[in-house]
DNA sequence: GGTCGCACTTGATCTGTGTCAAAGCCCGGA
DNA sequence: TCCGGGCTTTGACACAGATCAAGTGCGACC
């Protein structure tokens, strides 16, 4: 019953060995119960816009299942994705009244929500929540900076390889779907969404995926599902140093 | 005597009308005094590297005077700036042992430092610090996302205009150097640093600055100092919507 | 089973920015 | 005063990726 938002409260307290699974019963029971009473759910269909820039935001939430994106748009329609929300990611900013980005459901999405005001009050009372939120925000900031390097300095081929590596890594850490040697990943994004992630056009995305396939770096099973025969080879193509992904 | 790190502890408590100047005496006196005892200074010369990626980080700090940058580098030397640290900005990540980025002093820099361990302990005891740090980190995340839009989707000309607008805005909010109509700004960065900020080459930066000058969007007084006759015109060139800068 | 529509691929061409190279400017030191 | 070196500007050219335009494949719906 606590599963949906436990990532919000978890913290390193020494008692909880497995950080991403356990919630420390000793310290957080009261807060957990209070939070439990506050939560409610919202679900959205694939393609649906969850909030528009400038909308009044009266809630904060975390993604339970599905994938959502944060995007920014220039007046003439150029779009850049600035956040990719996977299960357990947090949406919304305590202390801000209106949304700064468009939030869109890429697949069907279930969110676990908390009304903003009581959540903020609670944050003021229970230091663990602010500390946990700080930790999550710092992780996001690191991811954003890695992303900036990608956008500013990588070639189209490196961008595609990086994106596949990022998805594979986040995916693998959730699902442990690592077969012997080869790794199966499915891309939860359309070519256009990948383009918006990478600062490219969809044509370029398509061409570079074809090129990586031609060169044996990836194999395609259908259009959205790929296998990676050699992950290190992929990382090499991504141009990163050593382990080349989001610092975690 | 408290001036150097007061931004770290300030918060909205109702008593302090002017957020960026006042520290609420009622709530924070003890913490301020403890923090005061812990602080020490380091200074760096222009061009000097403050920390290298992977270095052990035994302190956190905030910039008192001068400008520093965070950069990431690919193996073949391509560089991308991922953070620009102006006075009052925070450096270092509580809970992380090694630096994730190169930190370099662009001008002479004075930093107000705290040893990491005691700072972390203090953070655990005094919720205000974590909350304040969260607020600052969320601001940085917003800035990073604006930056991602710039890197992924703006043209070279728009990038330059945006950078000038960003510097002018941060500068103006600190110094209130807004003359009637025209606005004088000096660029604290070399052409190469601007290029690293914007994901361009220094030649392109130079060409676009010349173009903006030719078109009357900016005027140059020497190489590093510009005046902006019409700020709205500049924002238009930057391609942003409405007020087009870092959301604050 | 056919056909409609949408996501994707592929091709031809165009263009903005990178690359390479040279020259100018300015400041500091001898 | 002149010289040297770093920062900057400018030019000529190359090329990665954008743009425009067909075409393909595949699932949904009749």
Taken in chain order, the helices and strands of chain A follow as: HHEEEEEEEEHHHEHHEEH
Assigned CATH class of the largest domain in chain A: Mainly Beta
Q: What is the tally of helical segments of chain A?
A: 8
What is the molecular shape of chain A? elongated
Report the oligomer. Answer: homodimer
**Biggest sheet record of chain A:** 4 strands, antiparallel
**Largest protein-protein interface:** A-B, 44 and 44 residues
Q: Which strand order does the major sheet of chain A show?
A: 1-8-3-6
Write a brief caption for the model.
The structure is a homodimer of 248-residue chains. Helix content of chain A is 42%, strand content 21%.
Question: What does it look like?
Answer:
- The structure is a homodimer of 248-residue chains.
- Chain A has helices spanning 6-9, 25-38, 116-125, 127-153, 156-175, 191-198, 202-214, 231-238; strands spanning 40-44, 49-51, 59-65, 68-73, 79-85, 90-91, 102-105, 109-115, 183-186, 219-221, 225-228.
- Chain A has 248 residues and is an alpha+beta fold.
- Chain A folds into two domains: 3-148, Sandwich (Jelly Rolls), CATH 2.60.120.10; 154-238, Orthogonal Bundle (Arc Repressor Mutant, subunit A).
- In chain A, strand 10 and strand 11 form a beta hairpin.
- In chain A, helix 5 crosses helix 8 and helix 6 packs across helix 7.
- Chains A and B meet through strand 5 and helix 4 of A and strand 5 and helix 4 of B.
- Chain B binds a DNA duplex (30 and 30 nucleotides) through helix 7.
